[in-house]
Design brief:
This protein has 3 helices and no strands. By secondary structure, the protein is mainly alpha-helical. It is rod-shaped.
């Protein structure tokens, strides 16, 4: 398992905490930079929202993949039972 796989697993297992962290990072950047952000404050919000959407989409895809794998495993088990009868 590579480092990216480990990172993905850590993120997917803690999606709510990652989302909360994104919000905190957004707020911290706005606090630290204040008026220096100017028009970029809207871009910062947009990027934060996109990251949270991607996180949600990845989490949903992971759940669907898990369900599909479970169904495939059940079907394989049934097929194996039938083959041994």
């Amino acid at each position: 398992m590579g480092i990216f796989d480990k990172a993905k697993d850590a993120v997917m297992g803690n999606a709510d905490k990652v989302s909360e962290g994104l919000d905190k990072a957004n707020a911290m950047a706005k606090d630290k930079l204040g008026d220096k952000l100017g028009d970029h404050a809207d871009k910062l919000d947009m990027v934060t929202d996109k990251a949270k959407d991607a996180l949600g989409n990845a989490e949903a895809a992971g759940e669907e993949a898990g369900e599909a794998a479970g169904e495939a495993g059940e079907a394989a088990g049934e097929a194996a039972e039938e083959a041994t009868e």
